[in-house]
Amino acid sequence: MKIQYDTRKKLAERIFLIEILKGLALTLKRLFTKSVTVQYPKERKKLFPGFRGRHALIRDPNTQATKCVACMRCATVCPSRCISIRFSVDKKTRARKVNSYEIDALRCIFCGYCEEVCPVNAVVLTEEYEYSDYTRDPFHFDMDRLLKNWDEFLDKNKVDQDKYRNPFLRPRGLSLGDLPAGKRIDVPEEWTYEGQVIWKDGKAVSAKEAASE
Amino acid sequence: MPENRVESKGIVKEDIAYEPYTIAMGPQHPATHGVLKLNLELDGETVLKCTPHVGFLHRGVEKLAENLSYAQTLPLSDRLDYIASMANNVAYSIAVERLLGIEVPVRAKYIRTIVMEMARLTGHLLWLATHALDIGAMTVFLYCFRERENLLDMFEEIIGARLTTSYTCIGGVRQDITGHFLESLYAFTEDFPSKIAEYETLIDKNRIWLKRTQGVGIVTAEEAVSLGLTGPTLRGSGVDYDVRKHMPYDAYPYVDFEVPIGSKGDVYDRYRCRMEEMHQSNSIIRQCIEAMPPGPIRAEDAPDLVMPYGVQKEVAADATFSSGVIKLVKDRHRYMDGDVYVAAEVPKGELGFYFVSDGRGVPYRMHIRAPSFIHIAALSFLCKGQMVADVIAVIGSVDVVLGECDR
Questions:
Q1: Can you list the domains of chain A with their CATH numbers?
Q2: Of B174, B260, B289, the CB nearest to A1
Q3: Disulfide: which of A83, B234, B256, B345 matches B229 by Cβ 3.0-4.6 Å?
Q4: Pick from B73, B49, B70, B45: which is nearest to B59 by CA?
Q5: Residue A205 and residue B269: Cβ atoms within 8 Å?
Q6: Do A199 and B290 touch (CB under 8 A)?
């Protein structure tokens, strides 16, 4: 496709600055439309679920401790190697117990791989993004701090833990067979493999609905 | 070169050795789009020689990749061209998939094409904003960011990050799209041509814009090819080369679009090319949404995120539920020996990934053919004989991002 343009101007356009007046009219028109600026500290945008913010370890409501089983998948997949886990093995039951779980948030690149590979949904990146500080120490999250991050997130956003759904805890559009047992949580219909959306007649409908019609 | 003869206010001084005036433009100069440093040798206001200095943002991505698995390198590709990181993700993924011989499901192909074209829009919008701001049109900057914000919001909806997205994975995409995303994107594409018309109202026929762009930084088709330019910078000179058309990947064979081509090869031509590309991207997104098929979003043989060697599951022939159902077969030679070069059309031009693999889970060597790096190398040719003010227009028109150049 050859671009055709003709920038030669008619006599009237050359004399009367018509193109500049058109531009000025546009900016003047915009003056009377609704402003799109978000006045940040006063008003905040609503984040979508799954925003990759501050790290947290989900507190298990039954044991009040972390759900982590020290499988080391998150520490292995982390591209910036910011997760370090220490664990001990019970000699009788061969069960692993997490002794320390540390995340260096200043090294983290927020790719979300850790929460995606976690088989028991223990580690999560919460929708919390305002946590700046003056020193480096507050960004070295140990296990207590990570559990506290989770509590703070629940308190601040008034989230019910049972109803909290993050697309990284169960990635959207995967069938159940692709997921380990711990990640097979209930999610909205739209997030499941069966409920995935396609486009039909000018609106998004689930593929199942479209097939049944 | 100037002679050794200076005439000033009627007084003639002979045999004065005078050299061209050398100034350093950048690396903090706001119009150099990052940390680009240009050493300009000037005769008055005419540029005699322009020497680009790069490397201020070097992070060693290529070397880092040699110690990370293929999946782990993907978030680093966000940090190349950070204003259109989705396009880098897709380019990286198709390169690794070609190496591994993975065929991506159709739905994932369509989703990738959508996000790639969205990335092209974000890239071109930011380019138009800063290019116009450099030349002196402030309002276009604000209007472009208004639309870019909408696109970044949609990125946030599907993957949870606005700039460093890491959306694709090897063999598909990480998250499926939602209905709200599709509907808001479709509404955006219906509205977007009128927004492009707004930008064009402001600058397209503006006499200041025309004087600053027409006849500036001319590069003929032959010179452009020999300089290695790609993307809209090449197409502005009239060369019909687009990776999407000539080496199609993902869903590009299934959609109908045209490649805009300029004629003169000046800054204005490159500007028109990108504006037309925005229209084309818009139409590609619409076609992909309308043809979005159902199906899986990841290939069955896609490698696991954690295990770079890819443990394969094999069901034994006499398997029942109670007796050893699944045998895990560790196939270390799944990654082929050999090398592969795969290119994709990103907003800046042809982004290519070259892998040399020795069969391990990590590349032996990764090389990135970054369009920005090659375009910066062409700056010394493009700026020769121009005025100092035109250097700004030329930098804007070749559209460089230093994160990708220095990588």
A1: 55-163 (3.30.70.3270), 176-212 (no CATH)
A2: B260
A3: B234
A4: B73
A5: no
A6: yes
User: To the nearest whole angstrom, how far is the Cα of B325 from the nearest Cα of chain A?
Assistant: 15
| Residue A176 CA neighbour count, 13 Å, CB half | 8
C-alpha triplet B51, B58, B341: angle, nearest 5°: 95
> How much of chain A is helix, strand and coil, in % rounded to 5?
30, 15, 55
Assessment of whether the complete model's pTM goes beyond 0.80: yes
Chain A residues within an 8 Å CB radius of B255: none
Residues of A in contact with B82 (CB under 8 A): none
What is the interface pTM, i.e. ipTM, of the complex?
Answer: 0.88
Q: Are B206 and A73 a contacting pair at CB < 8 A?
A: no
Is the minimum CB–CB distance between A165 and chain B shorter than 8 Å? no
- Cβ contact B75–A197 (<8 Å): no
What string of pLDDT tens digits covers the 407 residues of chain B?
A: 455 555 656 666 666 666 778 888 878 777 777 788 888 888 888 888 889 988 888 988 999 888 888 888 899 988 888 888 999 999 999 998 888 888 899 999 999 999 999 999 999 999 999 998 888 888 889 899 989 999 999 999 988 888 888 899 888 898 888 888 989 999 999 999 999 988 888 888 888 888 888 888 888 889 899 998 998 989 888 888 888 888 888 889 999 888 999 888 888 889 988 999 999 999 999 999 988 888 888 888 777 777 665 555 555 555 555 555 555 555 544 566 788 899 999 998 899 999 988 877 788 889 999 899 999 989 888 888 888 888 888 888 888 888 888 88
- In the stretch 128-157 of chain A, residues with CB closer than 8 A to chain B read none
For B43-87, the DSSP string reads ETTEEEEEEEE--TT---HHHHHTTS-HHHHHHHHHTTSTTSHHH
The owner of tokens 């090398």 is B339
| Cβ–Cβ below 8 Å for B176 and A196 | yes
